[in-house]
Amino acid sequence: MRRNGIIYTMYNMSAPTGHVFIATSLDGFIARRDGDIEWLVSFPGTQGVDHGYDAFIADIDGLITGRGTYEKVLTMEPWYYNRPVVVLSRQLAGTEPPERLRGKVVFRDETPEEAMAHVAAEGWRRVYVDGGQVIQAFLRAGLIEDMVVTQVPILLGDGLPLFGRTDSDIRLTHQETRSFASGLVQSRFTVDR
């Protein structure tokens, strides 16, 4: 079977699907220019509130993210993810993660298509795609099935945008929107094919 230029073997007939679950400021930024996300993690009323993450991650086989997101999560204790993590990074590829993350994190220098073929061979079916540049690359490659985007009611004015340049329009279909007592508004979109 061929999908997005990737051939899947008879032992692995279905291509994995990419899924996004991310928060942005109201003006569309996922972090400040220096990568700071304190505005998000300390937003009033969000501590201890799930906002749908537990249900989302329960159906995920593993995570593909970028170096910036990995390095930010690395500063948090305990390690945030309870699924295997692939970090796409030219700089880190060929190196080992810290001892405490061995067997949990691998570094690879791969395109989105190569990364999805690699995790398909490992048996992954649903992949959590995280990190601004990685999400953008997977969208351009047509490898994102759906996105849950949570807007935090704050304007940063500048920062790292969730969405960037695309080669053509990417049409989305709105599935649902819900609001939380914390003031966060969450929308789910499927990516039209």
Order of strands in the sheet with the most strands? 7-6-5-8-3-9-12-11
Element-by-element helix/strand order = EEEEHHEHEEHEHEEEE
User: End-to-end span in angstroms?
Assistant: 17 Å
**CATH topology call:** Dihydrofolate Reductase, subunit A
Fraction in beta strands: 25-35%
CATH superfamily: Dihydrofolate Reductase, subunit A
Question: Based on CA inertia axes, which overall geometry fits?
Answer: globular
Instruction: Tell me the Rg in angstroms.
Output: 17 Å
Description:
The chain is built from 5 helices and 12 strands. The chain has helices at residues 38-41, 53-58, 67-74, 112-121, 132-140; strands at 2-3, 6-7, 17-25, 29-31, 62-66, 85-88, 105-108, 126-129, 144-152, 160-161, 172-179, 185-191. 26% of the residues are buried. The strands form 3 sheets. It has an 8-stranded mixed β-sheet. The protein has a two-stranded antiparallel ribbon with strand order 1-2. The longest helix is centred in the middle third of the chain and has 10 residues, at 112-121. It has a single domain (17-191), classed as Dihydrofolate Reductase, subunit A. The two termini are 17 Å apart. By secondary structure, the chain is of the alpha/beta class.
